[in-house]
């Protein structure tokens, strides 16, 4: 029992839809037919009853009229009349008060099985004789020298047969309807579930062939195409982030490989010659240590980047800070370290501006940009820092007059690991992560970073931070 219930709940949606629609159709068809059957049956019997009543009225009217004319009961005259008006499958009898049959006219009617009865009030009964359905109407009749009853019997076999045919038609129709509704339900469910099956197929293909497969979207718009579109969007995101991760791992391993290869080279050198030659030993250890430092920095920066890439929701609702204070603090320290640089500030922004961002992030962003400004300047050691307010943003512009960035590289310098001239930057020890960390941090808090540059002349980095309202 339990197993069969489980089997029922496990059947596919296709079959559920088929069965449900078939059941509904059967129920509708069945109830409609039952109502129709009873209605027609009732109507037919009523017709028969009305017909028998009309006949009785006719007979009584004749007998009354005849009696009036002759002043006594003219049985012979009545016989002629009753013979004439009798029809097929019908009987008319005259019964006296002792319940004896005085006269019968009958045509194809089983009158012998019906016991004559004298009645005081008219009565209409339905009965069966030899399996034949009959209607019998008795009505009292009285005049000066006669008292008895008139009986009219009528077979309703024809109506009954009609109803039987009707029932057969209904049952065959019903069976046909079950078949058709099962077929219809199957077609309907197939049509409805086609997009769902497409989706399942696509998922199978994704499992087999990779993330590039998408659900085909038809021209018609409905809830299921919405679902397909949502699924495709989701897959776009998944594919994009998967590719980003892949790219990141490739870039990171490439970046890690370079210092490791250099260290490996120096260690081999030491193994071969260095033990005897203190000069080689000294030089190789020094260079290896530099590469190890680079590795340490790289790993630290990768950690920073992954922290910066956290979901923005994790970093909301921070205490508001005054960015001007942070800028002052950072520049004071920076000037001490880079005393050879002329750092000029132009603070145009309102003193009391507040932004919602932890101050250590603002410091980090400023240091990343200032570090680049120093690293990529050689002749003109001048850095200008300007602040301004533009709509709902607090702007920090940092401009240096160094080597600049070629136009074709400008769109890419914010990407991870991107360096303009890899050989040139390697000497300055950069790994190409600074600006991408700054960009992530700023964007996580609703801000933006822009870069403008003129090669060999200047570079301007604009940081837009959202002002607290
Ligand atoms: P890291 O900051 O990770 O130590 P990096 O400075 O090379 O390394 P980013 O700060 O991301 O990396 O900068 C990316 C590249 O953009 C740099 O390698 C450099 O080529 C170019 N760049 C950035 N700032 C400037 C600038 N002020 N002047 C000229 N080129 C710049
Ligand atoms: Mg940098």
From TrEMBL:
Source organism of the structure: Lederbergia citri
InterPro entries in alphabetical order: ArlS_N, HAMP_dom, HATPase_C_sf, HATPase_dom, His_kinase_dom, HisK_dim/P_dom, HisK_dim/P_sf, HssS/ArlS-like
PROSITE patterns: HAMP (PS50885), HIS_KIN (PS50109)
Pfam families listed in its UniProt record: ArlS_N, HAMP, HATPase_c, HisKA
Annotated keywords: ATP-binding, Cell membrane, Kinase, Membrane, Nucleotide-binding, Phosphoprotein, Transferase, Transmembrane, Transmembrane helix, Two-component regulatory system
Keyword Transmembrane helix in record: yes
Gene3D superfamilies in alphabetical order: 1.10.287.130, 6.10.340.10, Histidine kinase-like ATPase, C-terminal domain (3.30.565.10)
Residues annotated as transmembrane: 17-40, 165-188
Residue ranges constituting the HAMP domain according to the UniProt record: 190-243
EC numbers for this chain: 2.7.13.3
Domain Histidine kinase, residue spans: 251-469
The protein's name: Signal transduction histidine-protein kinase ArlS
Subcellular location: Cell membrane
CC annotations in GO: plasma membrane
Alphabetized SMART domains for the sequence: HAMP, HATPase_c, HisKA
């Amino acid at each position: 029992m339990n197993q069969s219930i489980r089997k029922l709940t496990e059947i596919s949606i296709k079959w559920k839809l088929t069965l449900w629609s078939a059941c509904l159709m059967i129920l509708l068809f069945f109830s409609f037919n039952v109502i129709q059957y009873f209605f027609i049956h009732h109507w037919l019997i009523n017709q028969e009853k009305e017909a028998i009543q009309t006949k009785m009225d006719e007979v009584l009217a004749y007998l009354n009229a005849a009696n009036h004319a002759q002043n006594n009961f003219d049985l012979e005259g009545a016989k002629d009349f009753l013979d004439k008006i009798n029809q097929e499958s019908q009987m008319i009898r005259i019964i006296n008060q002792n319940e004896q049959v005085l006269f019968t006219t009958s045509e194809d009617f089983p009158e012998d099985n019906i016991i004559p009865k004298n009645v005081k009030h008219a009565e209409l009964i339905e009965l069966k004789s030899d399996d034949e359905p009959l209607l019998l109407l008795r009505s009292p009749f009285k005049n000066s020298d006669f008292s008895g009853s008139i009986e009219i019997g009528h077979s309703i076999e024809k109506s009954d047969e009609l109803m039987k045919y009707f029932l057969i038609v209904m049952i065959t129709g019903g069976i046909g309807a079950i078949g058709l509704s099962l077929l219809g339900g199957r077609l309907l469910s197939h049509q409805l579930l086609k997009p769902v099956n497409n989706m399942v197929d696509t998922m199978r293909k994704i499992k087999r062939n990779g993330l590039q497969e998408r659900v085909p979207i038809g021209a018609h718009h409905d809830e299921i195409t919405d679902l397909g579109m949502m699924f495709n969007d989701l897959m776009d995101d998944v594919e994009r982030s998967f590719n980003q991760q892949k790219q990141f791992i490739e870039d990171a391993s490439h970046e890690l490989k370079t210092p490791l290869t250099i260290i490996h080279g120096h260690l081999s050198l030491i193994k071969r010659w260095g033990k005897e030659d203190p000069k080689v030993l000294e030089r190789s250890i020094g260079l290896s240590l530099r590469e190890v430092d680079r590795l340490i920095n790289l790993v630290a920066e990768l950690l920073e980047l992954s922290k910066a890439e956290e979901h923005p929701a994790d970093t909301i609702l921070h205490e508001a800070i005054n960015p001007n204070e942070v800028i002052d603090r950072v520049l004071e320290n920076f000037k001490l370290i880079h005393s050879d640089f002329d750092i000029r500030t132009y603070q145009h922004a309102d003193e009391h501006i507040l932004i919602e961002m932890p101050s250590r992030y603002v410091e980090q962003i400023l240091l990343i940009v200032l570090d680049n400004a120093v690293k990529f300047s050689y002749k003109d050691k001048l850095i200008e820092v300007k602040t301004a307010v533009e709509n709902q943003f607090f702007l920090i512009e940092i401009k240096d007059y160094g080597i600049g960035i070629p136009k074709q590289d400008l769109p890419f310098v914010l990407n991870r690991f991107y360096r303009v001239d890899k050989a040139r930057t390697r000497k300055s020890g950069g790994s190409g992560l600074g600006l991408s960390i700054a960009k992530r941090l700023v964007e996580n808090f609703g801000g933006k970073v822009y870069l403008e540059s003129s090669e060999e002349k200047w570079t301007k980095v604009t940081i837009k931070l959202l002002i607290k309202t």
